[in-house]
Amino acid sequence: MSDFVRIVEVGPRDGLQNESQAVSTADKIALIDRLSATGLRTIEATSFVSPRWVPQLADAAEVFTGITRLPGVAYPVLVPNEQGYDRALAAGVQEVAVFTAASEAFNRRNTNAGIDESLARFQPILQRALVDGVRVRGYVSTVLGCPYQGEVPLADVVWVARALHRMGCYEISLGDTIGVGTPHKARAMLQAVAAEIPMSALAVHFHDTYGQAIANIATCLEEGVRVVDSAVSGAGGCPYAKGASGNVASEDVVYLLRGLGLECGVDLDALAATGRWLAGLLGRTTASRTGQALAAT
Ligand code: HMG
Ligand code: MG
Description:
Blueprint: E1 6-9, H1 11-15, H2 25-36, E2 42-43, E3 46-47, H3 60-66, E4 77-78, H4 82-90, E5 95-101, H5 104-111, H6 115-132, E6 135-141, H7 154-167, E7 171-176, H8 183-194, E8 202-206, H9 213-223, E9 227-230, H10 250-259, H11 268-281, H12 289-296
Parallel strand pairs: 1-2, 1-9, 3-4, 4-5, 5-6, 6-7, 7-8, 8-9
Helix pairs in contact: 2-3, 2-11, 6-7, 8-9, 10-11, 11-12
Bound molecules: 3-hydroxy-3-methylglutaryl-coenzyme A and magnesium ion.
């Protein structure tokens, strides 16, 4: 099993999409450029979704064309449909992420489409991406619970993940959108998906509503997952998931990995400083316990 864990930094997208106060385009660009300098290999930069649905990220093209893209760093963006894919391509994007859910009720609220309908929307994107040389990541949301439906059967998580994988998504990120999961449930969910899809093509994505995200990640690492999504300073939440709170903080994940003897290539001090800078920009204290502890020493 590899000792390297790739962190997918989702702060500029998942971290900011739910932020009610305006964040300037220049600050978004500064955030991504600072993150690029920490050694992160993947930084989800923004979303080419409908600006009516997520006004905070209406400046996606300006942000993407304004950042300094470093060689060896991937900058994926979210796209919900072909219109988003067209906008992303025009901005020079080389990797996109499509997103659906294991819960029909949540997917309707988030994308105004059923699960089958969203998969059908992705088909032409995957086909075009193959020709365009664009990599496509896939997200499955609500894998450990849904704010509208409640329990989500494991079989639904598995079939949606498999559908995305069969379509050609190189990696499937399993999202605990509202952060209700606990370690035994997270392990069972990952095992069920990994029985159908190679572990090397899976990522985990935990929100930290009940403070369980780090415990869940540690358990999933034990199971063999080697890609972890997180957001600097623990920013984030989905505007269409009632009760969704921040993502697990990237700084806390890096500290955990260090303790477990796993490499991720990230400069923790630089990352924590960026987390505190972002929190300051938003007028609050960083939600990362690691970020707070490092500031105090
Ligand atoms: P809709 O209203 O059904 O779309 O929304 P439509 O196709 O009927 O179009 C309506 C209008 O939107 C039209 O404009 C379109 O042009 C425009 P009008 O003619 O009325 O002026 N439009 C667009 N504009 C720009 N870019 C586009 C685009 N698409 C349509 N791509 C839609 C359907 C999917 C577009 C909408 O529901 C949407 O954008 N949803 C995104 C919601 C979102 O971003 N949620 C957060 C991300 S998911 C998440 O956070 C979970 C994750 O982190 C994992 C986890 O935690 O589980 C990934
Ligand atoms: Mg999320």
